[in-house]
Amino acid sequence: MSNKIENKSINNIDKINNLKKEIEELETKIEMINSLINTLSDYHREIVDLKYKYNKTDSQVATIMKREERTIRYAIKKILKILEEKYNNFLKIS
């Protein structure tokens, strides 16, 4: 009986340690993404915040930013391309 409890405790501790490691890795990724976003212009950063942080639709972002929806869609494509290039450059350096 005590052996079962010990094994279960060990398994739970292993799971906890794995989850802690996963949390640390995710926090590191979040920090990296935030630092890449912070290199964007204010205009692009505001679009990213509205679209992804506040889950606004392209139409809502366009209304808030007082732009056409197609302008926002184009800007999002451009922003994602910029971030991808910066990320790839970061990987080359690392």
First CA to last CA: what distance?
50 Å
SSE pattern, N- to C-terminal: HHHH
Query: Helix fraction?
Result: over 70%
How confident is the prediction overall: mean pLDDT? 93
What summary fits the major beta sheet?
Answer: none
Residues in β-strands, percent: under 5%
Radius of gyration: 21 Å
Shape: elongated
Unreliable residue runs:
none
| Secondary structure: number of strands | 0
Query: Which secondary-structure class do the elements indicate?
Result: mainly alpha
How many DSSP H or I helices?
4
SSE arrangement:
Blueprint: H1 2-37, H2 42-53, H3 58-65, H4 69-93
Helix pairs in contact: 3-4
Describe the model.
This protein is mainly α and 94 residues long. The chain is 86% helix and 0% strand. It is built from four helices and no strands. α3 packs across α4. The longest helix is centred in the first third of the chain and has 36 residues.
Q: What's this model, at a glance?
A:
The chain has 94 residues and is mostly helical. It has helices at 2-37, 42-53, 58-65, 69-93. Helix 3 packs across helix 4.
